[in-house]
Specification:
heterodimer; A: alpha+beta; seven-stranded antiparallel beta sheet; globular; B: alpha+beta; four-stranded antiparallel beta sheet; three-stranded antiparallel beta sheet
């Protein structure tokens, strides 16, 4: 046990905790979980009470919040922490932030804020600045010290995603931000209020520097209301169960969670080295950008190198990560670690979600100057939507743990990864005459990954939030000058495999009741030039995101004449936006992300796809009945059923059923075709290495990516040279700028 | 500690275990003998007699073949030393132009071949598609998992294998011979 007391300065207590972990291997030096062993019933009961207390804060805070992002989508989180910052338990909501909130509290302590400006009951502290550990400016991180009889005993924290943070372009998905100066209003590790109230100058800053100040301040009050809820309820819990029990149990919950995660790794995985590549495109050349340096296409290298050690600790490296980009898609290592904690908690340590499992990680600092650690080289790097590369990288964690769970036979725990995450934001005057900008929640309800025993679920999941909730269409219509013409399952959007990913959907919006509206088809981890992820175990990957829109359409005429409108995406070679309506300007195959170059007007139409998730297994091993069922549901097409899955169907009684014999024959033909057209790897390698050396048919974005990856991580670069037998001084050569 | 029938585990693998029973498996504390049962099930489903040391994927297995630890497909096709990426011993078909991509993705769902190639790794024995990589040109094949087999058997399972081999990636050594 640590020898510090409640009177010891917090920074000293924090350092003593670190030392105790180093010497004992247990958090807080807790070799024994006394309260758990002595009174397991109360220990379990208090855990659930504290968890529910956070959920009460979430319910209260979201109700008080103003923007539809928190109020309707629940895109927020509240947490309870120990006095030294460790997250003990969290609410429902965007769980990716728990680690970040924990690190923020520790950062306040480490910076000496306990001495100046000091901590007292009713203080409100905030940060949204990535240079000090924030993720991106629209995510306002808040914490409040909680006192009991003049002693600081804990912290309450919250994050909510505001509708506009004053970045150079409207909204909260600032992919177009060229540098940190355009990222919006910074709250840089500040005390922003006392006595449970915000300073007047805090509100004045919000009012002068954000586009939707009423909503942003409403969300701030929502955060505050939730934190006060935690404080008041915690006092009741302490009165009932005693201060000693509650504080002791809070430490034990964190250590308990660490033990659970370590045990789970040891009992359900296999030691060894896991490697998985991942790539993401960001094609901006020729589009509407802000500075000339942004007239480029970019490709991210997002590699995961993970080693499970004999003691079940986990080493993690991002060696090979590519360089920063002149867009808002760079992330601080602190924020990346927080995202990792969320992924890890979903996959490995989800019994008690808190800071505990992170203590079993050894994370190598990402390469200086990479998208994952920009500031040592590029202090001006933008982070407007820093999640974009991070969640794409994080997808690997799901897949690689799915693989090791399979090796131990725990098939029920297996999952594939995510697909593509594309957002939609609007900016303009709405039907009430109010200027409004903000995010729809469509992307928060994607298809879920294939499991080891089943397809994923349709429109039920999102990698960055367990909420999986896209909100009510009617509520979005209240805020934004749009009407939903469709929100329906998109066929073939979950990859092709033995088990497919859950399917995504298509939102079809008609612009209505506005003098002009900007549509920002944004990037929160989307892929548009490439596919969404690899396949897993021989499946084919998820299709790219390709949105569409029609400007100055004939929709009013069609409505007046009561003729059919447009309600869906349409076939890949027969987009509905071109076949169902007429328009002066039609974009039916846009490469995302982009902001519409022209203001959209009444009766314009937007066709916005939302991705499904990764599939698993050879597509010709898919149960023919499942393929026939997908055909009958309209969830796949005859081309995919026949050519990809090798399923032949007939329709004897109005419903398609598989022809067993014809299917077996077709599948055998596919196997033989594969063997006859494929070549031994070595033969392909001999030809391919010449093309690699000649940099043949490699887009400039790809060559730039490889050049930065190999320069920033020399050993990674040497391994690429060795694999392809390239000269020792070989580098890829981007086009001259 | 939970215990599950082998028959139910087989149903789970085949995707036919009823959802309540699947939920039970998800919620219960994990059964300690799962690995051994899973290996037994897989051993009965493969077309070879070599003992399985580790199911690398549902289709590929690290086996002991006369004392050598090699990767084998369900059908018995061998892919050599498990410390060399098995993909080097597979057949490969690469979709790196629109015509080849177009057999899988059509119209606006077509990725750009200057940004990405689809690599299909095929078993030369049974024609199973073992993995599909979506990577830009220049990316070495992913070596998804190199197990530390000796640590696994000796320290985690408590029954060391009869011999030990170094835990090392020998892929680049193999390529160096080409």
């Amino acid at each position: 046990m640590s020898t510090t007391t409640s009177n010891t300065p917090l920074r000293d207590r924090m350092h003593a905790n670190d030392e105790a972990f180093k010497t004992t291997g247990s958090l807080f030096g807790l070799n024994t979980l006394t309260r758990k062993e002595d009174d397991p019933g109360t220990y379990e009961a208090v855990w659930h009470i504290l968890s529910n207390l956070c959920n009460t804060a979430w319910a209260t805070g979201c109700k008080v919040s103003s923007s539809p992002i928190a109020a309707e989508g629940g895109d927020a989180l509240w947490a309870l922490h120990t006095a030294t910052g460790e997250a003990v338990c969290i609410s429902r909501g965007i769980s990716a932030h728990a680690g970040l909130l924990s690190d923020m509290i520790k950062h306040f302590i480490e910076l000496g804020y306990e001495d100046y400006p000091g901590f007292k009951q009713g203080d409100i502290f905030e940060n949204n600045d990535p240079h000090y550990g924030g993720i991106h400016s629209p995510d306002f991180d808040m914490c409040m010290p909680l006192f009991y009889k003049d002693k600081l005993i804990a912290w309450a924290s919250c994050v909510s995603h505001v509708s506009d943070s004053g970045s150079v372009t409207p909204g909260s998905i600032g992919f177009l931000n060229p540098d940190c100066y355009s990222d919006g209003i910074p709250i840089s590790m500040e005390r922003v209020g006392e006595h449970d109230a915000f300073y007047p100058w805090y509100e004045m800053r919000i009012r002068s520097r954000t586009r939707t100040p009423d909503f942003v301040m409403g969300d701030a009050r929502g955060r505050l209301a939730g934190c006060i809820t935690i404080r008041e309820r915690l006092e009741e819990v302490i009165e009932k169960y005693s201060l000693d029990f509650v504080l002791g149990a809070m430490n034990e919950y964190v250590e308990d969670s660490r033990r659970y995660a370590v045990a789970r790794v040891k009992n359900q995985t296999v030691p060894g080295r896991i490697r998985k590549s991942q790539f993401k495109d960001l094609a901006m050349k020729g589009k509407r950008v802000l500075l000339s340096k942004q007239n480029i296409d970019c490709m991210f290298n997002l590699p995961m190198d993970l080693t499970i050690n004999a003691d079940a600790s986990v080493d993690l490296s991002l060696a090979g990560a590519s360089g920063t980009v002149p867009f808002g898609e760079n992330i601080s290592p602190t924020a990346l670690k927080s995202g990792l904690m969320m992924g890890y908690s979903h996959i490995v340590g989800f019994d008690m979600f808190n800071s505990g499992p992170t203590s079993a990680w050894n994370i190598e600092m990402p390469p200086d100057g990479s998208w994952a650690n920009p500031y040592p080289v590029d202090f001006q790097a933008a982070s407007g939507v820093a999640w974009a590369p991070a969640v794409t990288w994080l997808s690997n964690l799901y897949e690689v743990f799915g693989r090791v769970f399979q090796m131990r036979g725990f098939v029920e725990e297996m999952a594939a990864g995510s697909g593509s995450i594309m957002t939609a934001e609007f900016a303009g005057i709405n039907q009430t005459g109010m200027y409004l900008t903000g995010l729809t929640l469509e992307q928060a309800s994607q298809g879920s990954p294939a499991r080891g025993y089943s397809d994923g679920q349709n429109s039920a999941w999102c990698i960055y939030t367990p909420e999986g909730d896209f909100g009510n269409a009617e509520v979005s219509e209240l805020y934004y000058p749009i009407l939903f013409l469709g929100r329906n399952v998109a066929p073939d959007s979950g990859g092709f495999g033995k088990f497919r990913g859950g399917l995504g959907h298509t939102a079809v919006w008609m612009v209505y009741n506005t003098p002009g509206l900007e549509y920002s088809c944004g990037d929160a981890g989307m892929r548009s030039k490439t596919v969404g992820n690899h396949g897993m175990y021989g499946a084919y990957p998820v299709v790219p995101d390709r949105p569409g829109y029609g400007h100055k359409t004939n929709l009013k005429q069609l409505i007046d004449e009561q003729k059919p409108l447009i309600h869906e995406r349409g076939g890949p070679d027969n987009p509905a936006v071109t076949s169902k309506i007429m328009a002066e300007l039609v974009e039916d195959n846009a490469v995302a992300p982009f902001v519409t170059p022209e203001q959209l007007v009444d009766y314009d139409v937007i066709v916005h796809p939302i991705s499904g998730a990764q599939a698993m297994g050879d597509p010709i091993e898919r149960d023919p009945e499942s393929v026939a069922n997908d055909l009958n549901e309209g969830w796949t097409t005859q081309r995919v059923a026949n050519d990809i899955h090798g399923v032949v169907t007939s329709k004897p009684n109005g419903h398609l059923v598989p022809d067993v014999e014809a299917t077996a024959k077709k599948r055998q033909e596919i196997r033989e075709d594969r063997k006859s057209r494929a070549v031994p790897f070595k033969q392909w390698w001999a030809e391919e290495r010449k093309k690699v050396e000649a940099q043949e048919n490699m887009d400039n974005a790809v060559r730039t990516m490889w050049e930065t990856s190999m320069r920033l991580s020399p050993e990674y670069g040497n391994n690429i040279r060795k694999f392809w037998k390239l000269p020792e001084d070989f580098t890829f050569t981007p086009d001259a700028q | 500690m939970a215990s599950f029938d082998k028959a139910d585990i087989e149903k789970l693998i085949d995707g036919v275990l009823p959802w309540p029973a699947t939920q039970d498996m998800l919620k219960s504390s994990k059964d300690e003998d799962r690995f051994d049962k899973y290996v037994e099930i897989m051993q009965a489903r493969v077309d070879f007699d070599d003992p399985i040391l580790l199911p690398l994927t549902p289709q590929l297995f690290i086996v002991s073949d006369n004392g050598e630890r090699v990767v084998k497909c369900k059908c018995g096709q061998s892919f050599g030393d498990y410390r060399v990426n098995w993909k080097l011993s597979a057949l490969i078909y690469v979709r790196d132009d629109e015509q080849k991509m177009g057999e899988v993705y059509v119209g606006r769902e077509m990725p750009d071949p200057a940004w990405l190639q689809l690599r299909e790794y095929i078993c030369g024995g049974c024609g199973t598609q073992l993995e599909v990589e979506a990577v830009p040109r220049g990316c070495p094949p992913d070596f998804e998992f190199l197990p530390d087999l000796d640590t696994f058997y000796s320290e985690w399972l408590g029954r060391p294998l009869p011999d030990t081999v170094a835990f090392e990636d020998k892929t680049l050594d193999e390529v160096g011979k080409w």
